[in-house]
Fold these 2 entries.
Entry 1:
Amino acid sequence: MLLVFALKTYTVMRMNTLVLPKLITPVHAGFRDLELPEAFSWEAGIDQTAIHGLYVVAFRSLRNLQAPPEMIDQLLELDGDATEEAQHMPGFHTYWHDDDLSAEGYGLSFCLWDSREEAKHAAQQPKHRAAVMYARGEGREVYLSYDIETHNIFRFAGAKIVFALAA
């Protein structure tokens, strides 16, 4: 069965990268309802020959389907600006964004980083902070709820990927 999703993948191309972002895709139409380790094709997109760890920040949301379109447009623009900013930050691998919400308004996106420290540093940058402040302030009608989840991802040479919830 072939699953097709409208999505954007933003990627920084690096020499000797351990992550092949275009291969990390949803594995099931109901991916938004699955735990993050089961929702995507991580095995296909993360190098199997190296010993390494990665850090993923996932954003699960329930969009207010009645939110004013101009608020949604503004938030999407700010999100795009923050993504562009993140692409130039050390440790950034990819940003996967779910463009098609579920019929109920559920969405899921994630950023993949080399480390928690690099992800936290990027979250303090001006464009990311502007998007967060808008979502919490003037644009607070866009989401009915959202949750941030973080995981450490480990792979030892030749072994399966292991996810561990990050504190």
Note: The beta strands are 7-11, 52-63, 92-98, 106-113, 143-155, 162-165.
Entry 2:
Amino acid sequence: MSTAPVEPVNRGRLMLASFLTLVASGVGFATRAAMAGPWEGAFNIGAEDFGRIMGAGFLGFGVMIFFGGIITEKLGYRFVLFVAFLLHLVSAAALFGARPLYASLQASSPGSFAGPSHESQFNVAGIGSLPAGRSMPCGQMGRLLQT
């Protein structure tokens, strides 16, 4: 039975990487919480609805922390951190690309995003439909993205 040489682990670098990952998650949650007021006004939702949205994010975070530990034990810390780093880059690209993409979509079909309520554009096959009496204010969303 032969054993392959094990590469030494730099625990300091791993600790720094995991710390920075938690800081990035915290900044993300804090940013979304700071946007509560503008988003409530722009999307015509109340504090209760916004709390449900944030709660879903916290629930997802907690579930992934639990299952992420199991996945990390199976695949290894280095691989999981590498994938997390790549996914953070994809997330940043999506965030910074949202405004130009929205502007190009708006320019390609100007009438599609102009009305006060275009719920059907955000409601594919009835999934995630808004409660009765609610509508998606696309014009407000466009102004929010353009600021």
Note: Confidence is low (pLDDT under 50) at residues 115-145.
